[in-house]
Amino acid sequence: MTPEQQRQYLKHMGVPVWVRRHQPEPEAVAPEVIREVQAEVPVAVEAAPPAVPPSTSTDLDWPALQTAVAGCHACGLHQYRSNTVFGVGDPSARWMIVGEGPGADEDQQGEPFVGRAGQLLNAMIKACGAERAQVYIANVVKCRPPENRNPLPQEVASCIGYLQRQIELVQPQLILAVGKVAAQTLLQSEEPIGRLRGQVYQYGEQAIPLVVTYHPAYLLRKPTEKAKAWDDLKQALRIITPL
Ligand code: SF4
Fold this sequence. Notes:
The protein is an alpha/beta fold. The protein has helices at about 5-15, 30-40, 60-70, 105-110, 115-125, 155-170, 180-185, 195, 215-220, 225-240, and strands at about 90, 95-100, 135-140, 175-180, 200-205, 210-215.
């Protein structure tokens, strides 16, 4: 990706791109950061809070897992769904992006992160040098909560085994938890997302690095927080790039 393309993607995210004065060839901040990342800067990993224990619920392969989700009635959310929303992307991706649960558009299309929030997530992924299809995207719960409310603890408890198995199958080298529900669930924490951001955690027995950022839907409501989200993505890029 060229620096100009990256500048455009950051613009689409709404992140200000600062250009140096008095330089013969102006450079954007973000591409510089990405080049620094590629220089394999070591990253300090914070002591992790208790992570979700590895899944013991299933040893299903991809097709069996998808079939199990499609027919699941393990919690009350099955009553509200038009479609289950399993996950999309590269099943061998380096980056796994985990959100909360399907909204109205996702429920209709059976795919996570579509609609305006999905477009912003795509722009965030592009700003990191990858396409949506080159990461793996899934949610904590696979069925839409009514009125777009947060999933209840018992609903998360019923569904989390599917996400755990997806993580085991993808074996990502980085997990990006987007939004409060994903972050609190994966980190087994009740801390607000503002406090969970800014650290690198370790997930599961494989100690997969986990970074927290804001949900794109929140960023659409509060665009002034986009710069912080870009800081989070830079932190993730310092660990490993998506490609
Ligand atoms: Fe099953 Fe998860 Fe849907 Fe609940 S949300 S019915 S546990 S797939």
